[in-house]
Amino acid sequence: MKYRLMDLLACPICKKFPLLLLVFAELKLQPPRSTRKCELYCAYHNSRIFDLQNPDCVTCYTKEISSGMLICDGCGRWYPIEEEIPRLLPDELRKFNEDVEFLRKWKEKIPEKVLKEGKPFSLKEQV
Ligand SMILES: [Zn+2]
Ligand SMILES: [Zn+2]
User: Fold this and answer.
1) CA 121–ligand 2 middle distance (angstroms)
2) Which ligand ends up closest to the CA of 10?
3) What is the domain range of residue 18?
4) Which of 26-35, 40-49, 89-98 has the lowest mean pLDDT?
């Protein structure tokens, strides 16, 4: 997914916007032909557009996040980004084993709070 997408994504459960983005791995893309800008929130600059002096959103369109995590500080949920796809699924469609495996895989890069208290699954039982 592109940084750009963060300007559009809200938590599917509690609707909180913006979500917090953690990037674990990214790819570089060709720059887009036209320069567009994020409209409300720019994840690359981690700021609302209103607060940016001179928003340069070229980077938002030229990087593809291949692995990462979206965190909602409204309800405490986290969502994986895998193979460039953010998976914003409701709790009942998530798989415990896959989620725990994802947390283990990126453990070093995930905040303590998410590892221990993240919803719907955490490593609480394991660590
Ligand atoms: Zn931007
Ligand atoms: Zn939420």
Assistant:
1) 14
2) 2
3) 3-89
4) 26-35
